From TrEMBL:
InterPro entries: ATPase_AAA_core, Bact_Antivir_Def_Nuclease, P-loop_NTPase. CDD domains: ABC_ATPase. Gene3D superfamilies: P-loop containing nucleotide triphosphate hydrolases. It comes from the Bacteria. This is AAA family ATPase. PANTHER family: ATP/GTP PHOSPHATASE, EXCINUCLEASE ATPASE SUBUNIT. Residues 25-285 form the ATPase AAA-type core domain. It holds the Pfam family AAA_21.
Length: 354
């Protein structure tokens, strides 16, 4: 399954957007409050409900409620009123948004700003949607809390966005049977080389095993290593496979800059395996590592299509706009590079007294 296009009308910060995505890797950048995470969340809330298949027997009303609950859980608007996600501009009283998928499949949702639990849902498909996996990795890791999180979320009102719950359930899956494919082994090898150890699960608890030193509880590892551990286990359990769509929100969070290059290399191998990847980032190193892969054929022998999407606000109207290029260097609005250049200029001013 691949997401081909996202269309937004009057949705949160976006008055109008129509973004055509790469089947391989999409890097989303921009200043704070321009909607990077919103793009990931809205696509996730549209594609996740159908990922397990078996939705053909749902009535129209049941289908609507599946989507309403997912949107409520992912965005968590005040009092769970989905109408609060409609753009707050004068005259905008309804939002409509959709994703176009491969094989002429499309999922569309719309609702007014006074709606609480109702939405108009339309699903177009030429054939039964086959099972696929959708993974959203938020900024906070989950592998150290899997043991109790799912049951607590099921029984109590916990103020966590539903992506955390979905991720915890994926981490709760047992290991898959059968050997890994070559690409999976390559990713696992890269990650285990970075971490110098292996991931072990016992009774819903995860441990990091280092040869000659024993097993260490996940809570004793850095947040960055826990995120890498999640990737490893989801590959081992079969959740992260060639039919997966992966959303990763700010992978640089709590990561040592030395780990950025191997992380990018891992995502490149996942894309080569068939995973469609969406990454939001503020990080210079992540953007430039992907830019190098996009720019130099020797780093991209399989000719992966890498798109760079920059979100920015109009200084007069404050509307959010976007541009998409095949190279980060070609972006006219690149907040990451602009700040990097500004820092360089400030240092030169100090050195030369300008």
């Amino acid at each position: 399954m691949k997401i081909k296009k996202l269309t937004l009308n009057n949705f949160m910060a976006f008055e109008k957007a129509e973004i055509n995505w790469s089947d391989n890797i999409n890097i989303i950048c921009g200043e704070n409050s321009t909607g990077k995470t919103t793009l990931l969340k809205v696509m996730y809330s549209l594609i996740k409900p159908l990922s397990s298949g078996g939705k053909d027997n749902l009535t129209k009303e049941m289908e609507e409620q599946v989507y309403v609950k997912k949107i409520q859980g992912v965005f968590r608007p005040d009092e769970m009123k989905i109408g609060r996600l409609v753009s707050r501009k004068q005259g905008s009283n309804r939002t409509d948004f959709s994703i176009d998928l491969e094989k002429k499949q499309k999922i569309s949702v719309g609702f007014g700003n006074r709606q609480e639990n109702h939405a108009d849902v339309s699903i177009e498909r030429d054939e039964k949607i086959k099972k696929y996996d959708v993974i959203y990795i938020p900024t906070k890791e989950m592998i150290s809390t899997v043991e109790h999180f799912v049951s607590l979320y099921d029984e109590y009102h916990i103020d966590f966005e539903e992506m955390y719950y979905d991720l915890a359930k994926l981490l709760d899956r047992p290991l898959s049977k059968g050997p890994n494919i070559t690409e999976q082994n390559q990713v696992l090898s890269n990650l285990e080389d970075i971490m110098k150890g292996q991931i072990v699960q016992k009774n819903k608890k995860f441990y990091f095993k280092i040869k000659g030193e024993g097993e260490f509880e996940m809570g004793l590892l850095s947040d960055g290593y826990r995120k890498l551990s999640m990737i490893i286990y989801m590959i081992l359990s079969g959740s992260l496979n060639k039919n997966t769509i992966l959303f990763w929100d700010e992978p640089e969070t709590n990561m040592n800059p030395k780990m950025i290059r191997p992380i990018v290399q891992v995502m490149v191998v996942l894309a080569q395996m068939g995973v469609q990847i969406f990454v939001s980032t503020h990080d210079y190193f992540i953007q430039q590592e992907f830019n190098m892969v996009a720019s130099y054929p020797e780093l991209n022998p399989q000719k992966l299509d890498i798109k760079f999407i920059s979100l920015f606000r109009d200084e007069k109207t404050m509307d959010v706009h976007y541009e998409m290029k095949n190279s980060a260097s070609d972006l006219e609005h690149n907040a990451i590079m602009q700040e990097f250049d500004a820092m360089y200029d400030r240092e030169q001013g100090i050195i030369y007294g300008e």
